[in-house]
Amino acid sequence: MNQWTLPDYVEDMLPDEAVYLESLRRSILDLYQAHGYFYVIPPMLEYIESLNSNGQDMDLDTFKVVDQLSGRLMGVRADITPQVARIDAHLIHNEEVTRLSYAGSVLRTKPASFLQSREPFQIGAELYGFKGIEADLEIQTLLIKTLNTIGIKTPVFDFNHLDIFTSLIASSNIERDLLDRLYEAMQKKDQSEVKSLTQSLDKKNREALIALVSLYGDVNILKEAEKVLPQDKAIKNALQFLNQIDKALKEYEIKISYDLSDIRGYQYHNGLVFSVYADQCYSPIALGGRYDNIGASFGRKRPATGFTMDLKNIVTLFPNGKKAKAILAPQGNDAGLEKAIESLRQQGDVVAIDLFGDMNAIQNNCDRILIQDAAKAWKVKAV
């Protein structure tokens, strides 16, 4: 076996992609800071109990190691969101609204899809301490601005409200294994499998769960849902909430759809959830929603909503085509040369010194050279 090969779904990022990712990271974090979302950097390693506060699914995604100092089981983070919740609960610990942002690599035992890395680069924003719809709309508006920063036009926001699903199963004592299978059937929109799995449920809720599979489309699907779903207070409130979201986001250049069988993250999400898609992308480019219970495992339950996206995935799906190029400058102790180089760098240009002395621009990944003209002034010339 070649020693230089990498594990499956783990990869290097070469200069062109790495420079693009870093430029996006800086632009996006600047955007978040301008909106009051302050940057935090959680550690790569934590005790497993803290990392897996979201439940069993996260535990399966987590690489585990034994801490040689304490003997306790630790994990390499597979998601930054629980870490940010811990920071809000125990380090910031105020009763006011807290806005936090983050960006960093995570590691997962398996990829989210066959096109994605096991080492995503997560970037996201979280808002804690406010339960009203205004917080949800602020998060979605910030995500729209994030997509504009990246250059993604007319994204599709796909909404659901998990109170609909949880209300339908609340009165039924469904075992975890059956619930997991029901989740998979819902995600696949396998109506026959949903029928099979819900045979033990009461007729009203069973018919409603079966109906969820076909309840997806534009805002008109909410009217259809009002007709076929039980007139449960929680369900009525959820549908009303989705209608409010639809009206509030009409002013933005986005497409809005609804999928009432999309129960992704039901183990820890509650209320509004959403996935964002773009043209020619078969998996979500961003995920988000409300998770008011996430702080409970840290002893401080309070409202929370946010979103996350994988910048590595974005760079792969939406390459900017730009190359990481530099200006090649000769060696020398000439004061004018040193001044010209420093001036170019302060202007934002990349200047590399030609150590070989042959000014081979192609070899040095440079598309311009710094040379003296007839008047002995240092000028940049394309090659």
Structure description:
- The chain has helices at 15-34, 48-51, 56-61, 81-92, 133-150, 163-170, 176-188, 191-197, 203-212, 220-228, 233-248, 311-317, 335-346; strands spanning 38-39, 45-47, 63-66, 73-76, 98-105, 121-128, 156-161, 216-217, 255-259, 272-277, 286-290, 304-310, 326-329, 351-353, 366-372, 378-382.
- The chain is of the alpha+beta class.
- Among the domains are: 15-155 and 278-317, Bira Bifunctional Protein, Domain 2 (BirA Bifunctional Protein, domain 2, 2-Layer Sandwich); 326-382, no CATH class.
- Strands 1-5-6-12-11-10-7-9-8 form a nine-stranded mixed sheet, with helices on both faces. A four-stranded mixed sheet has the order 14-13-15-16, with helices on one face. A three-stranded antiparallel sheet has the order 2-4-3.
- The radius of gyration is 25 Å and the shape is elongated.
- The two termini are 42 Å apart.
List the helices and strands and how they pair.
Layout: H1 15-34, E1 38-39, E2 45-47, H2 48-51, H3 56-61, E3 63-66, E4 73-76, H4 81-92, E5 98-105, E6 121-128, H5 133-150, E7 156-161, H6 163-170, H7 176-188, H8 191-197, H9 203-212, E8 216-217, H10 220-228, H11 233-248, E9 255-259, E10 272-277, E11 286-290, E12 304-310, H12 311-317, E13 326-329, H13 335-346, E14 351-353, E15 366-372, E16 378-382
Parallel strand pairs: 1-5, 7-9, 13-14, 13-15
Antiparallel strand pairs: 2-4, 3-4, 5-6, 6-12, 7-10, 8-9, 10-11, 11-12, 15-16
